[in-house]
Design goal:
The chain has about 290 residues and is of the alpha/beta class. It is built from 9 helices and 13 strands. The strands form 3 sheets. Strands 7, 8, 9, 10, 11 and 12 form a 6-stranded mixed beta sheet that branches. Strands 4-3-5-13-6 form a 5-stranded mixed beta sheet, covered by helices on one side. A hairpin with a 2-residue loop joins strand 1 and strand 2. Helix 1 crosses helix 2, helix 1 crosses helix 4 and helix 2 crosses helix 3. The longest helix is centred in the N-terminal third of the chain and has 26 residues.
Length: about 290
Amino acid sequence: MFGPRRFLPSIPSLLALEAVDRLGSATAAADELALTHSAVSRQIKVLEGQVGVRLVTREGVRLKLTPAARDYCEKVRAILGDLSKSTLTLRVNPSGGSLNLGILPAFGLHWLAPRLEAFALAHPEVTVNLLTRLAPFDFVESQLDAALHYGGRDWHGVHYLRIAGERVLPVCAPNFLDREIQSADDLLSARLLHLETRPSAWADWFAQNGIASEGMAGMLFDQFSTMAQAAAHGMGVALLPDYLAKSEITRGRLICAFGAPQPTRGHYYLVWPREDPPKPRVHTFVAWMKTMI
């Protein structure tokens, strides 16, 4: 529910104000909006009349937003962005039923994406939109309906559907190692690459091999894909999920540095907020996911 209509400014006026604020001049705003300089000025005058507040100061032919108008414009820009996204969603799925899914890039692309065609064929009434999320978030404050999650059951206020376990493998560029690795202990002296969201991954791997480790320095990455690229360019040894490592090994970009794939402590889950009942599109997607595992 919104307030009285007199407090709802016209969109052309808001677009003019936003463009002047972002581009720094009415002339640039006019060019972007395909208007004349005077038309932009008129739109802002209309907006000032609607809100009852002075929004710009005029320095000759130049328009300069007041401090209050700049603060107002930040909120306007966010609202216009949301409106644009909602309109795009409506255009790509006019029958409704869009499901916004947060994905972990590597697992989402290698495990989920190849299966989504089957979902689209089975449920054409639901369009799945994929958005990258690397860590747990607040569903209430987001526009997402569900998400892929790696780790334990440490995401509060959600339902869990276990999808798969994970195995990891240390890999590096074919010419990176100057000697053969005889034991896992040999990797302690190598340059190790780390994933930001899994700070204990290498320590866990060494522990599984009976080796105590601490204080392992090395480069830090936010995604497996960039870490794999760094390893392929000879920047160090990366600990990658086997589904990603095997594809890079097949392409000849990486080799196994030591051993065989080892299971990790975490699992991949589909999570969605505890709502009763769940949104129909979420219920449909969860039911379909259960057939995939």
